[in-house]
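Two proteins, back to back. First:
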Amino acid sequence: MMQKREDYSLDVPLDGPPAPSVPTLEHECTLSGVRLMALPPGQVEIGYVAKAHMLDVNLNALIHEQAVGSNRLRPQCCPADSVSWAPVGVDFRLRANNHLWGLLLEFDAERAHELVVERLDGRSLPRDFLNYRPRPRAALFARMAIDDLRRGGEDRLFLEGLALAILGDTLSSMDAPPSLGPAAPRGIARALDLIEARLGADLSLAEIAAAAGMSPSWFAESFRAAVGEPVFAYVRRRRLDRARAMIADRRLALGAIAHACGFADQSHMTRAFRRRWGG
């Protein structure tokens, strides 16, 4: 077996044979016909022709490369808090660099059919690949599942309920137009990389636009069209996401976390947390 490459959270090289399923991850749980996997941040490369239905809950806003039914990878804009669906037999290839945790779910075909008949009003399962589209409720449930899986996945009934809720929310999006447009400008990918590398710094629109090779006004419009939100709304959300992850890690004091994530001080970070999550 090929050794997993350093810095890769999911590594099935695209120049090798496709996998029938996602390799075993550290934080996962298999229930009755449903496998939930918490995917840690890091590089991702995988090609597979799935023997089970695959549902991917993506919490990042990023430019990745993907191919469906083809060997030719194309850059795509993947919005944050979005979901994709790959039914049994679909040839799917992906290369990405995730900054946040994600959730993968594999549904045994027979079990998935039972779920939609018994508990989801008999809705039909998608027969074609369903590209990434925003599903905030599914993303919320995914965050809860990731937290539980990282603690050991002991509450199996809770996880099964979350898996069902995510599947139901995904099916309800089938009639919505896909949000993933044509190939996104590579300049936006460079801008996302800069933002991620300098979240703790005093970023300016001009600096980020320069990394993308665009004027500030053109960049602001292009970024919103590609990512789905204004530049500094995205920066603020990423700072909060990183701060929450660092707080959960419990290695640094709150004041140090605030400065590391680009907030003026702990009070500034606290106010931002309350605006986003309440409390």
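And the second protein:
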Amino acid sequence: MRGGVLRGLILIFGTILILLSFFQPVVGWILFLNLLDLSLRFLIYSLLPFSKFSLLRFGVLLLAYSKVFSLFSHPHFHLVESILGIAGVGVCVVNLILFLSDDLNKRLLDVATKDSLTGLMNRYSFLTQAQKLLKQLEAKNQPVAVVFIDLNRFKMVNDEHGHKVGDKVLEVIGKRLKNAVKTSDLVGRLGGDEFGIFVQNADRDQAKQIVDRVLQLILQPIVIDGQVFNISACAGVAIFPEDGKTLEELIEKADREMYRVKSLLTSEICTSQSE
């Protein structure tokens, strides 16, 4: 629908342009350019999305009407033209400042809350949001699962292939983790190759299913610059309130459980291999 409206507006503008070009010898270049300018201003007004640029639309509309009054020679019309022009420019500038400010705020928020490499929540953001959710779910007497994930021998990837390749591997794993959980759950990068997942309203059996799915996603081959990496991981789970009453206790319990599981695995399973 949006494409149809855009094509229609372009068609109308094209028609106006053709007609103006036809009458150019009659009206002269000055009037021709003024009418062309006016048509362009109304076209810009029509193309701007109303929801996002309502203030800018208003400013462009003021500029369009100032152009209308400029076509008349009466001094009062010139006064109205000046007022509308100044107001239109002012409104457009204000909208631009607000737009840039909003964009800057979003960028600053991303820097403060997101891990720049994986796009996941950073440690501070994950812990802060998880703490808030835990209090809310505790009041509702709902269970919570905290999952602590550690990649197996990821240091070998950095040592043998360089940190640039290692960063790309982490980026892929971050996307897989994000796709493995619901949007209502939290997933963050807690350290170099350590990740945390906060699952709402999940008991131990449900948490185990999530962990199995996550570990299988991580284990899928990752291709970086023609090299295939098979990265494995270990995970520990802690359930609120059985394993801890606070977020710190839950993370500590999940961390210990992860290392217990890691100690039971053979070296072949733990090794990250490059083919």
